Amino acid sequence: MKTYEVTARRSGDWWALEVPELPGVFSQTKRLDQADEAAREAIALMADVEPEEVHVRVAPLLSGEEKEALARVREARAESEKAAAKEREAMQSAAAMLAEGLSQRDTGRILGVSFQRVSQLIKERSKGEALKAEGTKGDRGSRRAESDRAEESAAPEPAPRGETRSAA
After folding, report:
1. Which residue, of 113, 119, 125, 166, has the greatest Cβ tally within 10 A?
2. Distance between CA atoms of 108 and 121, rounded to whole angstroms?
3. Predicted pLDDT at 137
């Protein structure tokens, strides 16, 4: 199914929609979030198909200044994501280190998070370290992990509370 490129140009209080691939197909809408539907309907009418059968990609035409502002937003968002990842790694490391000598409640109090979050941070760190280690081992490590999982699945289930089981 073809995807039509639609340009949206601000015209007063309206967005003027145009489909360059289909001369004579125009529409308009008050809000940009309504442009997809309006463009699909206009294309469907011209092509004599149902609007649900038409796919569009609306590209608003922005001024140079608006494009620069948008680029700054994207750059700031990328920096924010990097900072969040760095914070997450630091929190995981600090939680693991502090929890070695303190309770998870005390660790949480020091870090300013709940003890449940401390538990999550430690698990996330362990999982990340395991993935890194497995990635560096290559095929040999993944085969080893598969055999470990097979052994775990073959292990007997723990006995219900209050009962004991002897190895048979």
Report:
1. 125
2. 10
3. 65
In the chain, where the domains are located: 3-61, 79-151
- Please tell me the predicted confidence (pLDDT) of residue 157: 47
Cβ atoms 10, 58 nearer than 8 A: no
For the chain, report the end-to-end CA distance as a whole number of angstroms: 63
Give the model's pLDDT for residue 88: 96
Which tokens go with 158?
A: 């723990």
Q: 158 pLDDT exceeds 70?
A: no
Alpha carbon distances (Å) from 122 to 108, 117, 125: 11, 9, 5
Q: Largest Cα–Cα distance in the chain?
A: 83
Give the alpha-carbon dihedral of 106, 108, 112, 118, to 10 degrees.
Answer: 160
Measured CA to CA, the distance from residue 148 to residue 140 in angstroms comes to 12
Q: Which CATH class is domain 3-61?
A: alpha beta
Task: Provide mean pLDDT across the span 68-91.
Answer: 97
In terms of C-beta density within 10 A (0-12 exposed, 13-18 middle, 19 or more buried), how is residue 116 classed?
exposed
Residue 143 token pair: 């085969």
**Inter-residue contact 19 to 29 (CB < 8 Å):** no
